[in-house]
Automatic annotation (TrEMBL):
<feature type="domain" description="GOST seven transmembrane">
    <location>
        <begin position="220"/>
        <end position="466"/>
    </location>
</feature>
<dbReference type="InterPro" id="IPR053937">
    <property type="entry name" value="GOST_TM"/>
</dbReference>
<dbReference type="Pfam" id="PF06814">
    <property type="entry name" value="GOST_TM"/>
</dbReference>
<keyword id="KW-0732">Signal</keyword>
<feature type="transmembrane region" description="Helical">
    <location>
        <begin position="286"/>
        <end position="312"/>
    </location>
</feature>
<dbReference type="InterPro" id="IPR009637">
    <property type="entry name" value="GPR107/GPR108-like"/>
</dbReference>
<keyword id="KW-1133">Transmembrane helix</keyword>
<feature type="transmembrane region" description="Helical">
    <location>
        <begin position="223"/>
        <end position="243"/>
    </location>
</feature>
<dbReference type="GO" id="GO:0016020">
    <property type="term" value="C:membrane"/>
</dbReference>
<feature type="transmembrane region" description="Helical">
    <location>
        <begin position="358"/>
        <end position="382"/>
    </location>
</feature>
<feature type="transmembrane region" description="Helical">
    <location>
        <begin position="437"/>
        <end position="460"/>
    </location>
</feature>
<keyword id="KW-0472">Membrane</keyword>
<feature type="transmembrane region" description="Helical">
    <location>
        <begin position="250"/>
        <end position="274"/>
    </location>
</feature>
<protein>
    <recommendedName>
        <fullName>GOST seven transmembrane domain-containing protein</fullName>
    </recommendedName>
</protein>
<feature type="transmembrane region" description="Helical">
    <location>
        <begin position="403"/>
        <end position="422"/>
    </location>
</feature>
<keyword id="KW-0812">Transmembrane</keyword>
<feature type="transmembrane region" description="Helical">
    <location>
        <begin position="319"/>
        <end position="338"/>
    </location>
</feature>
Length: 552
């Protein structure tokens, strides 16, 4: 009894007898380990695949199938399994005598996972002559089911793999209907007494009522389709606001536009990827790689956007110091490398025999970097809110407090989803596969969208956008000092001076209705034209000649 992921096996010798307890425990471990590496495609190509060792079973893949009445879409009728051009043949150097024994001993079976132990006895799963005499099976060397079970059952399909030589014609395809919803195991069995170098070539495909997508992946197709539509709407909304208030635009607005674009790219290419997979049954590496790179880029770009906002970039400081920028660049590079590695390994772990230790080695670094980024964000955000509170910049403080609660909400939901996923790992896979996509894609993508929409709402372009921008006057303001306003701020504010200062500082503009200074050239209108006009007026009062120049 063996597995494609772990080539261990239970050999049955001396009348198919083994220590019952040890054989059963080993068999269960091998089945569970095999199912942790489920299929990533509904079409399995076999090219010169060696047959299992004698008296053994190999668990190749697991398929997730919806019965016709349970399927979310039913364009193609009931689900089917097709054995296409499946045949065995010898490898170079095989003895002729041994080849003849292989012609009827190798079989391919499809069996429901939840009923596996109803069909298979790990101590006796190959048909012997005694079993034929007792009527339990019809052919020596074929797969033997437990007493009371037979190959007419809806939960099991057994297919003989014919032996093929060069002079033989094409092998006829076999198509069977699957009538029950569930997880199906694809198995190799070799019940021959000898072990010739025989290989199998052909294809096994399982098609659901809606197409070739596995049942665990189907809901991602409409999910990414609707997300693409939503990101498109957000892109047009943000573009419209940016064009309308382009004079008030901040660097943060351009960064948010970049995140929207990357999110749209990710959802669009994953939608095309799953649509193509559903139609052809083969994964497109091109669409997958582009979608993967867009996904990782979107994640790190958005994390860094929240981080630099929490560090006060454009709010309490005009720029970040060189050391901080170097750290951000380093973390981003590490995240991209670890993120691409993690997503690639998790995607292909189903179709390749990857050790659990290797999978964990690829997943843990990305998770550690992710946790470090979140810790950095919350620490920086806490310090920023303290600074804003000390400077009594209440408008900016309210914005970051709202962002804080949005991030807390997202973190709590993500933690609950992770705990739930860990708790369900020990549960039967046949009871949770239909909702698996929610934990692998749905929760994380929806949480990301919630945070993005919150940032769009908090920092939407409007006529008061400059209120949230960095200003030297904000940094110089204390509870005992009168606000100082830079010349560029006064020019930009125009006639809304008093309104702005009343909203942000609770007082009247320092260059409002107060008395004019007595110094020549001083003015309450801090513009170049205003300074020149006041200086000329002062000279006229003193009886001095004024320059013959027109003041615009």
């Amino acid at each position: 009894f063996g597995s494609s992921s772990a080539r261990g096996m239970v050999r049955v010798e001396d009348g198919w007898r083994l220590g019952a307890q040890h054989a059963k425990v080993l068999a269960q471990l091998l089945v569970l380990f095999s199912l942790s590496f489920d299929v990533s495609a509904q079409i399995v190509d076999l090219t010169d695949t060696p047959v299992p060792e004698k008296y053994s079973l190999d668990l190749l893949y697991s398929f997730y199938v919806y019965a016709h009445e349970d399927a979310p879409a039913k364009e193609f009728g009931p689900p089917t399994v097709r054995f296409h051009d499946l045949s065995s043949h010898t490898l170079p150097g095989a003895p002729t005598a041994d080849v003849q024994t292989a012609t009827t001993a190798v079989q391919m079976s499809l069996m429901k996972y939840e009923r596996f132990w109803e069909f298979i006895d790990p101590h006796h799963f190959c048909c012997l002559r005694d079993d034929i005499e007792r009527g339990r099976c019809e052919k020596d060397g074929s797969l033997l089911l437990k007493e009371g079970a037979n190959d007419k059952d809806e939960g099991v399909i057994i297919h003989d793999i014919p032996f093929h030589t060069e002079g033989d014609g094409p092998v006829e395809d076999t198509k069977r209907i699957l009538r029950e919803t569930g997880v199906y195991i694809l198995m190799f069995s070799n019940c021959q007494g000898s072990n010739p170098p025989v290989a199998v070539t052909g294809r096994v495909s399982v098609k659901n009522p809606y197409g070739y997508l596995p049942g665990t992946e189907y809901y991602k197709l409409p999910f990414y389709g609707w997300l693409s539509v939503l990101y498109t709407v957000l892109a047009f909304v943000w573009l419209g606001l940016s064009v309308k208030w382009w004079r008030e635009a901040l660097s943060l607005h351009a960064c948010i536009a970049g995140v929207i674009f990357l999110g749209l790219m990710e959802c669009f290419f994953f939608f095309v990827f799953f649509s193509d997979w559903n139609s052809d049954g083969i994964r497109s590496n091109v669409f997958f790689v582009v979608g993967l790179l867009s996904s990782v880029s979107k994640s790190i770009f958005s994390y860094m956007l929240v981080l630099v906002a929490a560090l006060g970039w454009g709010t309490t400081r005009p720029y970040l110091d060189r050391a901080t920028i170097t750290w951000i660049q380093g973390v981003s590079l590490f995240y991209i490398g670890f993120g691409v590695t993690k997503e690639t390994v998790l995607s292909f772990r189903h179709s390749h025999s990857l050790p659990v230790s290797f999978v964990l080695l690829c997943v843990l670094p990305a998770s550690i970097v992710n946790g470090g980024i979140f810790f950095w964000v919350f620490s920086a955000l806490g310090n920023l809110m303290t600074t804003l509170e000390e400077r009594r910049q209440t408008e900016k403080l309210k914005v970051y407090q709202q962002l804080w609660w949005v991030l807390i909400f997202s973190l709590v939901v993500a933690s609950c989803a992770l705990v739930y996923q860990l708790c369900t790992l020990s549960s039967d896979i046949s009871t949770r596969w239909e909702h698996k996509w929610l934990l692998t894609a749905g929760v994380s993508d929806m949480l990301f969208l919630v945070v993005l929409m919150a940032m769009m709402y908090l920092w939407a372009p409007n006529k008061h956008s400059q209120k949230y921008a960095y200003s030297a006057a904000d940094c110089a303001t204390t509870s005992e000092e009168k606000p100082i306003v830079s010349e560029w701020a006064a020019e930009e504010l125009g006639g809304d001076n008093d309104e702005f200062w009343e909203e942000t500082h609770g007082g009247i503009s320092p260059f409002g209705d107060g008395p004019l200074p007595e110094t020549i050239g001083a003015t309450s209108r801090p513009t170049s034209a205003g300074v020149l006009q006041d200086a000329i007026a002062d000279l006229e009062k003193m009886g001095l000649d004024t320059p013959q120049a027109k003041v615009e």
